[in-house]
Amino acid sequence: MKICIKAPAKINLVLDVLHKRPDGYHEVEMIMTTVDLADRLELSNIKGNKIILESSSGFVPDDSRNLAYQAALLIKERYGIEKGVHIKIDKHIPVAAGLAGGSSDAAAALKGLNQLWNLGLSHDKLAQLGSEIGSDVSFCVYGGTALATGRGEVIKRIDSPPPCWVILAKPSIGVSTADVYRKLNLDKVEHPNVNNMIKALKDKDYQGICREMGNVLEGVTLSMHPEVNRIKEKMHSLGADGVLMSGSGPTVFGLTVHESRMQRIYNGLRGFCDQVYAVRLIGERTLE
Ligand SMILES: C[C@](O)(CO)[C@H](O)COP(=O)(O)OP(=O)(O)OC[C@H]1O[C@@H](n2ccc(N)nc2=O)[C@H](O)[C@@H]1O
Ligand SMILES: Nc1ncnc2c1ncn2[C@@H]1O[C@H](COP(=O)(O)OP(=O)(O)OP(=O)(O)O)[C@@H](O)[C@H]1O
């Protein structure tokens, strides 16, 4: 038996940090939504009690450092499963980009193995397991649009944005999330208003959504990598309505509802920036 499952990327419409916690993590308030750029995972049973992982990208590890591998190991250990699995990852989401590629692969592996091994685990249980792997994994189990609090693992579903285009632009630099959080100085940030964004989403107020977007990690990454700011300026000048860095970066996303403007922004950024994608915002939950 073979299970095929999609692992979509996310963007952060809002990322606020409230304070640093005694456990070293930061208390956050984030609004995340899924976009139509996805890795694809194929999971199949194999002989022997082992996990074999293969990826189409040379940039991701194919051993226990891979978050999808960690997901399989966690399920096997927690539920005493003595079976083997082959995990094939067809990578499309850029790596170390702020788009939760690894987290989404881990969430897809949890969901896929739940099916492959008939475990009957609920999405809430899978999200709880996911939080042991990384802060973004719980959100990726549900997808859709959500408010994430705690260290990112407490998920509440909220209204999805109206349909629009998302242009993603990633410069050829990698950013360490831990490094960005470490360098964040909370005395110097302007906090986005999460409640205003929730209201704008509820009202399907596209202009309001663009206006309320904000990410307190942006200033940290911008100060280390000025090219991220140049991409932001370029996106603005090409006519994107809302422009923001996703997660800890370095990917910048821009929103537009017009296909012709999407084409202009996409074409204007290619050649200027290493990796550029124009995709639809999914927003709605598509639980498998
Ligand atoms: C930047 C975001 O991607 C936004 O969605 C997330 O906040 C980070 O999610 P993630 O990559 O799944 O993060 P994790 O793998 O759990 O943590 C990586 C490192 O980031 C820092 N970290 C992460 C989440 C958080 N709420 N506070 C933190 O300080 C910690 O140093 C941690 O060791
Ligand atoms: N399945 C995977 N796909 C991509 N990277 C992975 C995977 N498993 C482990 N990694 C490692 O995780 C690191 C971060 O990659 P990832 O693409 O998940 O970053 P990200 O998009 O910034 O994540 P987030 O937005 O959750 O912080 C990479 O350096 C990579 O070596």
Rg (CA only): 19 Å
CATH class of the largest domain: Alpha Beta
Count of discrete structural domains: 2
**Ligand list:** 4-diphosphocytidyl-2-C-methyl-D-erythritol, adenosine-5'-triphosphate
Tell me the strand percentage band.
Answer: 25-35%
Query: What's the helix count?
Result: 10
Q: Find the count of extended strands (DSSP E, 2+ residues).
A: 11
Q: Looking at CATH, which topology of the largest domain would you report?
A: Ribosomal Protein S5, domain 2
Head-to-tail CA distance between termini: 17 Å
Shape: globular
Given helix and strand content, the structural type is: alpha+beta
Please state the average pLDDT score.
Answer: 96
Largest sheet: 7 strands, mixed
Pathway: Isoprenoid biosynthesis; isopentenyl diphosphate biosynthesis via DXP pathway; isopentenyl diphosphate from 1-deoxy-D-xylulose 5-phosphate: step 3/6
Keywords: ATP-binding, Isoprene biosynthesis, Kinase, Nucleotide-binding, Transferase
Family: Belongs to the GHMP kinase family. IspE subfamily.
EC number: 2.7.1.148
